[in-house]
Amino acid sequence: MRKKITLITGVVGEVGQALVKSLAEGRDTNLVTMDIRPAPDEITHLSIHIQGDILDKSLLARLVSEYEITTIYHMAALLSTRGEFTPVEAHQVNVEGTMGLLQLAAEQSEWRKEPVLFIFPSSIAAYGMPDLKTKADFPRVREWEWNYPITMYGCNKLYCEMLGTYFSEYYRQLAAEQPVMLDFRCVRFPGLISAFTVPSGGTSDYGPEMLHAAAKGEAYTCFVRADTAIPFMAMPDAVTALVKLAQAPKSGLRRCVYNVTSFSLSAAQIRDLVVEAFPAAQISFQPDVKRQRIVDSWPADLNDEDARRDWGWQPAYDVNRSFNEYLIPNIIQRYQK
Ligand code: SER
User: How does pLDDT run across 162-187, given as a tens digit for each residue?
Assistant: First the structure.
């Protein structure tokens, strides 16, 4: 008998780290984590960690021979800015890596005669607005609007949303006997802000970077214009969204891909909140034309009413609670240590 486990890929990333802690605090004790990077002790204490590449087919085969995977949280990805510097590698990790895990989950679902649950984080990067007028005219987009991403990462996420939906609903649709299909569920996240980790390689990074720099007493030059607005979410809500969607009864889910969001802010509004908490903060704006273009293509807000209706999504941290109860106190403590 193989041991039943939940697999988390990309666990050393920002979402992965927060997620594994939350799952371990809950009832999930059979956690196996993967990352190409070694994991810090706090992760290896909570899970069996495998340092390895999701593209390594023999590693995945060994994993399946040892464990019965019931749930996959597939967090491994190269983000939007990084992906523009290494597009081929981004495609390999983001698309081929996801394809490999979807195939694994599809095979395991058939073998178990029970769907493997596949939880996938997508992103506002799946949207692409052509210009600022469009962004102003369509401020709160639905899942199916403006799906014209302009980054490799955004293209990868949008395609993998479709691939996951395919594996979940249409896989081997012409076979004589319908296989048991995997259960793919996906959230489109806004920019995420954590008090404990800083992102790397993203384009929404100016939000968290501004805050962490101020807490460290470092000057920060923001790479987008002060009026640039996109949606954001505090990390605890991001984890809640993933776990809540995973736990939702399948019968209530009318889509595979759901927008989720909490609050939208301009870069100037983030600066004001940061300065309120850290009055000595030195923040200036020096837009990088190319990164600005990427953020300008992302919507100012997301319409997440389907998630609210189908599985009771509700952010616990609005902008005030995010900054005053979660971000500022934890960041101060983090850098005081
Ligand atoms: N935070 C991501 C990025 O900036 C968006 O999902 O790439």
Answer: 999 999 999 999 998 989 999 999 99
Ligand 1 centroid vs 125 CA: distance in angstroms?
6
Residue nearest (by alpha carbon) to ligand 1 atom 2: 202
CA of 299 to the centre of ligand 1 (A): 13
The Å distance, Cα 76 to ligand 1 centre, comes to: 13
Give residue ranges with CB within 6 A of ligand 1. Answer: 79-80, 123-125, 153, 189, 191, 202-204
Q: What is the pLDDT of residue 116?
A: 98
Question: Which ligand 1 atom sits closest to the C-alpha of 153?
Answer: 7
For residue 99, the domain's CATH number is: 3.40.50.720
pTM summary value: 0.97
The boundaries of the domain holding residue 313 are 77-193+233-262+301-317
- The predicted structure's pLDDT at residue 27: 73
DSSP secondary structure, 231-255, as one string: EEEEHHHHHHHHHHHHHS-GGG---
| Residues facing residue 186 across a β-bridge | 120, 257
Q: What whole-number percentage of the chain has pLDDT above 70?
A: 100
CA 302 to ligand 1 centroid distance, Å: 14
Q: Is residue 252 packed enough to be buried (19+ CB in 10 Å), middle (13-18) or exposed (0-12)?
A: exposed
Structural domain contains residue 165: yes
Q: Does residue 174 lie in a domain region?
A: yes
CA 123 / ligand 1 centre spacing (Å): 7
Token pair of 154 as six digits: 């955004």
Residue whose CB lies within 8 A of the most ligand 1 atoms, among 152, 205, 260, 302, for a mutation test: 205
Residue 1, pLDDT score: 84
Q: Which two tokens stand for residue 18?
A: 């927060």
Is there a domain that residue 12 lies in? no
Q: Is the pLDDT of residue 29 over 80?
A: no
Atom of ligand 1 nearest to the CA of 201: 7
pLDDT score at 336: 84
Task: Please tell me the residue having the least CA distance from ligand 1 atom 6.
Answer: 123
Instruction: Report residue 68's pLDDT band, with 50, 70 and 90 as the boundaries.
Output: very high
**Domain count along the chain:** 1
Q: Rounded to 5 degrees, what angle do the CA atoms 205, 55, 239 make? A: 40
Within-domain flag for 91:
yes
Helix (H, G, I), strand (E, B) or coil at 83: helix
